[in-house]
Design brief:
Layout (H helix, E strand, L loop, with lengths): L5 E6 L12 H15 L11 E7 L8 E3 L2 E7 L2 H6 L2 H23 L3 H13 L4 E4 L3 E2 L5 E9 L3 E10 L2 E11 L7 H6 L2 E2 L4 E5 L6 E5 L4 E4 L9
Parallel strand pairs: 1-2, 2-4
Antiparallel strand pairs: 3-4, 5-7, 6-7, 7-8, 8-9, 10-11, 11-12, 12-13
Length: 232
Amino acid sequence: MWPLDDITVYSTGMEIKDTPFDWEFRKTVNFVSDYYHNSLEGYKPPKTGRICIQINKDSVSQEPSYFGAICTLYTTMDEELYLRLSKVGQYRYLLDLIHHTVMEAADKLGWDKSVFESAYQTVLGSDFVFEKRYKGKKSRDRKSTGVAILAKTECRATLKVGVATGDSTREAVLFDKKNWWWGDSSYEIAAKCKWIDQDSFGYESKSTNKFAYYSVTEDKVKTNMHFEGSVF
């Protein structure tokens, strides 16, 4: 079954400029929608591969519509109020807009509303600090546990690994790159972090020969992964 790829918000407002004219709103709304989408923990509404939320200038009463597996929802926003808010206030405004729009659709389309409510509370309860800790993995001798930790802001995606042995815990940054939100490769890389050998924890791909891992013995990161601004 294909996953729910993303929840994307589009604006046709007058006061708020979107890409390609201005990236400020796009970065902000993508960060919030990516965090909310990731907090669904893999939930996929029936027959839905993408959710697109269309913000119109005037109040709308359109029903959810489908084009294939793309579900489009419609809403409006108070642009002048939004622009007066602090950055955290804008995060909260957009989170509420996304959540309320999706919950209305969930009620009409029979989606599991508890999953969306849980995602909303996760984002709100974190004060918009996006940090995802993956399941810990035991070393081959069972003495150490390695874990991948992905932190995201509007602009950056940072992947760290932590290695715990007894009462000692070490952390190291594998990479810090531009954030491409729901399409960012850091999700897949973090999910595939493992023990490379008895000493090293991180990412290694035999198909691409790319690697980024932390050597416990040498206390250093080894990598051949380099991310340019346009690389996801």
